[in-house]
């Protein structure tokens, strides 16, 4: 494990505040450069059309891709998302569909990291996919 992985594990175990607790997003697995989050859809995640709001998939992707970078960082380093690109592939029902989001680090440099992510439904169908660019901050 990296120092970033250790730090992320502690943060996620304390899941009492923040976006993960707000939308009941759960960490399924993580390793250096790869993170998987899951969540179940619910009616208050809906858009005006009665399907899952795109912001929920975007949040899953941003979280999984950013945390994938976090897991690969050395001690004392941090990051922030610079850019997030999301492609929505199909609508998602609001009746407890279990979504799985996997984020993977593509490149981790001294100042910039790039990542990709995929959201699938409980039948394994692609729901959304995205890429992200993150700025890496060196340890002080």
Automatic annotation (TrEMBL):
Signal peptide feature range: none
Record keywords, A-Z: Hydrolase
GO molecular function: 1,4-dihydroxy-2-naphthoyl-CoA thioesterase activity
One CC-aspect GO term: cytosol
Every Thioesterase domain range: 50-128
A Pfam family of this chain: 4HBT
This protein's name: Uncharacterized protein (TIGR00369 family)
Annotated source species: Actinoallomurus bryophytorum
């Amino acid at each position: 494990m990296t120092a970033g992985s250790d730090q992320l594990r502690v943060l996620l175990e304390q899941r009492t505040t923040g976006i993960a607790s707000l939308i009941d997003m759960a960490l399924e697995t993580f390793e250096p450069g790869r993170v998987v989050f899951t969540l179940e859809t619910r009616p208050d995640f809906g858009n005006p059309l009665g399907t899952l709001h795109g912001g929920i998939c975007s949040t899953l992707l941003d979280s999984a891709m950013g945390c994938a970078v976090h897991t690969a960082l050395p001690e004392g380093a941090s990051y922030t998302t610079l850019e997030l690109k999301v492609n929505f592939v199909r609508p998602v029902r609001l009746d407890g569909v279990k979504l799985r989001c996997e984020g993977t680090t593509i490149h981790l440099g001294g100042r910039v990291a790039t990542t990709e992510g995929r959201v699938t439904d409980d039948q394994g169908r692609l729901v959304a996919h995205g890429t992200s660019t993150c700025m890496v901050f060196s340890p002080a």
